[in-house]
Amino acid sequence: MNRRGIQIALVSAALLHAASFDTASIKISDPAKRGSDGDSTPGLLRLQNVTLRQCVKAAFNVRDSQIAGGPKWMNELHYDIVARADHGVGDHELMEMLQSLLAERFQLAIHHESRILPGYVLVVAKGSIRMKPALPDSECTTNTKKAGGTMQAEGCPISKVAAKLSDILDGAPVVDETNTIGNFDFMLRWTPVSVEANAGVSDASEVPSIFTAVEEQLGLRLESRRRVPVDVLVIDRAEMPSKN
To answer: Fewest CB within a 10 Å sphere: which of 66, 82, 97, 200?
Structure first.
């Protein structure tokens, strides 16, 4: 077995032996359903009308630009998933259990690669960081409304800010190069691109673009780069799920 084969086998084995749900139901969604949804409570995960690709994104906390390979159907077929743990666990543990569920029921096999993609790096702007240091031991929470142009964060490291900015920039990679340690609280407001395109100059200029807002409100700067090292999750195998 070559090195890549060994890596795939090790990752697959780790997923299968990770903590798993006590019970799980996976069913094809009603074709009439529109839109995807998901919610969780301690020990319970519900996903409605989701594709395997969406499940992978959630389970491994990656973006579209970080997923490569896989069969065509993983972007097209939709499923309803209800999974229960045998005890109350939070979202982080639920996502680890979802990884195990995908390996067991979808025969998901993956490996990681570092690839060079166009994207952005996040650096400290001239002056200093304008975000408020968070209280010690505060939990990182974010509330982002991309269409409304707002992001509120509490207790978050800049690496989390970079991940959220990637989502705002339609999945373009954003790498944290600030070399800054610590967690921060902030509110970010910007004009969404769709609003800029449809508004007059005076209307769109009332709230800055995402690039200007990041610099003026956070004390950070997004710099465009043609070559950004990104961790990519490669789908080596996926099969339609086994019956419940």
So the answer is: 200
Whether residue 4 has pLDDT greater than 80? no
Distance from C-alpha of 156 to C-alpha of 134, rounded to nearest angstrom = 8
pLDDT at position 22, please?
A: 94
Token pair of 57, please? 């994104």
Q: Residue ranges per domain, the chain?
A: 3-114+231-237, 129-218
What residues contact residue 162 under an 8 Å CB cut-off, 6+ apart?
Answer: 122, 174, 175, 176
Residue 230 contacts by C-beta under 8 Å, 6 or more apart in sequence?
65, 66, 114, 115, 116, 117, 119, 173, 175
pTM of the full predicted structure? 0.67
Of the candidates 84, 104, 91, which has an alpha carbon nearest to the alpha carbon of residue 21? 84
| β-strand partners of 89 | none
CB 174 within 8 A of CB 162: yes
CA-CA-CA-CA torsion sign (224, 229, 230, 235): positive
Selection from 222, 160, 151 nearest residue 186 by Cα: 151
- Is residue 55 helix, strand or coil? helix
Cα(96)–Cα(113) distance, rounded to whole angstroms? 20
